[in-house]
Amino acid sequence: MRRGSVLQLVGLGAVAAAITTAVALLIPWLPVSASKESTRIHFVYWFTTVIAIVVFAAVVAVLAYSVIHFRARPDDDSDGPPTHGHTTLEIVWTAIPAVLVTAISIVSAVVLAQNSRAGSTPLVVQVTAQQFAWEFTYPNGKRYGYLTLPKGRHVKLEITAKDVIHSFWVPEFSQKQDAVPGQTNTLVITPTRLGTFPVICTELCGLGHALMRSHADVVTTAKFADFMKHGAGGSPGLAVFQENGCGSCHTFRPAAATGKVGPDLDGLKASAAKANRGPLDKFIEESIVDPSAYVAPGFPDGVMPHIYKQQIQPGQLQQLVQYLSKGAK
Amino acid sequence: MTDAAHAHAHHTAPAPPAGWHRLTAPGWLRVLWVTPIGFGIGLGLPVLLRWAAGWHPLWDGTVLVTVELVTTPLFFLVGLGGFDYWAHYASGRPTRPEDHSGHGAYSWRDYFRVNTDHKVIGIQYVVTTIVFFCVGGLLAMLFRAELAQPGDQFFNPQTFNVLVSNHAALMIFLFIIPAFAGLGNYVIPLMLGAADMAFPRLNALSFWLLPMAGLILLAGMVTPGGGPSAGWTCYAPLCSHQPLGQVFFNMGVQWAGASSIMTALNFLVTIITMRAPGMTFWRMPLLVWANFTTSLLVVIATPFIAGSQFFVMFDRVMHTNFFEHSGGGYVLGYQHIFWFYSHPAVYIMMLPGFGIISEVIAVMSRKPVFGYRLMALSLMAILVLGFSVWAHHMFVAGMAGWLRVPMMVTSMVIAVPTGIKIFSWLATMWEGRIHFTTPMLFALGFLSMFVIGGLSGIYLASVPIDIHASDTYFIVAHIHYVLFGGSVFTIFAGIYYWFPKMTGRMYDERLGKLHFWLTFIGFNLTFFPMHYIGLQGMPRRVADYSSRFADVNLFVSIASFGLGASTLVFLYNMVKSWSHGERAPGNPWRALTLEWQVSSPPPIFNFDEIPQVVGHPYEYGVPGARHAIFGSEHPTPVTSEPVGTG
After folding, report:
1. Which terminal residue of chain A, N or C, has fewer Cβ atoms less than 10 Å from its own Cβ?
2. Which of A177, A204, A228 represents a domain boundary (last residue)?
3. Closest chain A residue to B463 measured between Cα atoms?
């Protein structure tokens, strides 16, 4: 190769690398990091990105150079030089990618090991997924429909599912784990940033999959101690509402719930009148324990699980019914 | 078929059957009365057995549908004539000596019957798969319309999930995999110097299973109660508890899989036993090598997806508990079995494309394929490694923890043989005389897009990054860069490249280039932004999403409509060129491989004289080099003229 063509090739590579680097840096590809694990994963991401940019730029440079310089004129019937191969070159382009992917593998394996470590005294939260709600159980036995975590402490989530496979993901924590019926999977999170982050189901789990959302609140250690002692506050009915994840499918203003899968519970009185199935309390109870008895118009049957008859104790059910009928308009 | 003279005696169309024989002869008339018999058996048998056993209710929809989806297509094939020869043979009746009446196409009607000519079957395959490509693309545009805004607009979640599931199922099982089988069917026997495939009747049957599979999948969409809506991956236990339409998915995949396995066996036997004299393995074109490795993948892996779908079907219909935790089943077992097929399936959908690209780049650059042997060996390396990486789809599934790092390493290592191929193609182009025809444009489009798809694959092979990106739109972006920017671009390259050979006419080069640029731009505008929304937090397979992704999704939806519209240019070009295109010469690309050394389209038995292979298939620029010589030619000719330009 002539020196001029080498320079031109390097120039094309530099331009390609510069454009790709700009794309990598100027677009905020990753969400903010809110956990130690996430920061490590972001490191692997950038490590891989540097290698990817180099490889991509090299390929694009050769491709662009070939397109510019080796274009045949329409009437050119000649053939190129009959090069059959070049052993050294072939060894080089086998060896270099092998080295690069080995480097990425080592970095990844180290980070994976670090991210699986929960320390000796983690906060253990049981996560139970079901169509289409999350339930988080704390060491004191209290259950919530959303996650509250202390900043700076290792948290070990023990994740399982009641019906089908779901997947727990908080993009800002970068950690994700499937919830599988019949087995308990663990996931370690060490929050580093105060705030509220979305909990998203990422495994197709049925009709309400897109709305199987909750949120994770990262609070200070002091606030978390208060949370563990007094819970989230409010009436016992609200606690039942939250424990059973009603808010992930239903809107109910008193509980600040904004779910959209099922009917709006703020309009319960109107619905009960329309359904004409007895007094409000009885209608609410029936709808919880036997959702198919009456299906609100515009909503498909079978989306609301038939599990609450077993899941909610009779006493709690009464608290929930009272809470709903009192708050309904 | 070795006796060329014998073949000439049967070059005329066979006389059509007359009178009552029209009803009993293989064909659509017989389909009309035989298929209802199959339908009746499928209906009567389960009801009768349930009545005899005293089971109630007698009419169980799931059972009936499952049995129907076996008997009705089977009897349709019986009616069409898929089993006639074997039935004669098995029942001890005298078999008709091969009269080649099933061979060749003399009018458009011959494409609608059981035809044993690999060239007819190849065209049947390609046209059928393009139909399903269009249907699958329309489904995608429907759900992109829904996704243009957050919230529910046009479809409820059930319909949305059906659209997504069937888009993927049609594109994978009814377009990409069989489109390659179709191109291979047409080209491989020609490239090998053979008169046909090793098993022409099996070949015909494997084609006809395909429209069956497609119709079953489409019928599932409109089943009362709802279509298959558990995604193309159909994870248990979700898919065992889906509406009735899910059974159509389970069974449709079986028919497509059976078709795939039969074709692969046919390719393997053809490649091993029917090469022309002198065609050693190291003289085979890389397309043949690619289909050889792909066929090995298919025969080893495809039975696994059949198994996974049977187990799910059993769980549902017979109430077994393979994947039901409550009955002691192993939930993750489904994913292990499924991905043991479906990861190799990624290579089933890619390796034939690699073969096409090798042909196109060598011919259009006028240079030998760089590092031919390493190119073939890297295919074999991908074949072997491809079976050791399935669990990288399960990094977040909760499988045995120790399995993650080994599966990451093997997944990473696959980048090495893939890299070898990319670099060798670049080196093939280097200092060549590149002709930027439409197939070459698609080859270059493939090369650049596949590099992006390969690199995003490296991100996903890394366990920590995959934990973040798994099941998000980043995956959707990655798979489309690999399967659309990869496989579909190679299919287009192959269709344009062999269009003159298959139809005897040239396609419109200007329309071809327009098609390429519209597709290339539309593709990138549609799929590149998906990387971003995925990493930011948008999961896949959702009908509704956070409003902060609204702008990007609107952009993607508009781009996807443009991408869909670009297909119209392709269809117009194909239809117009096939009917009115300029007549194609035997070898418009001045290629050396054997399919270009015969007329376009080739004679009914391909070669009037069996070629003698004397050299490598890509010796462009080598003075006096020949790939093959015909008939009376002396085996050691010394001419600098390429073969077949005259």
Report:
1. N
2. A228
3. A108
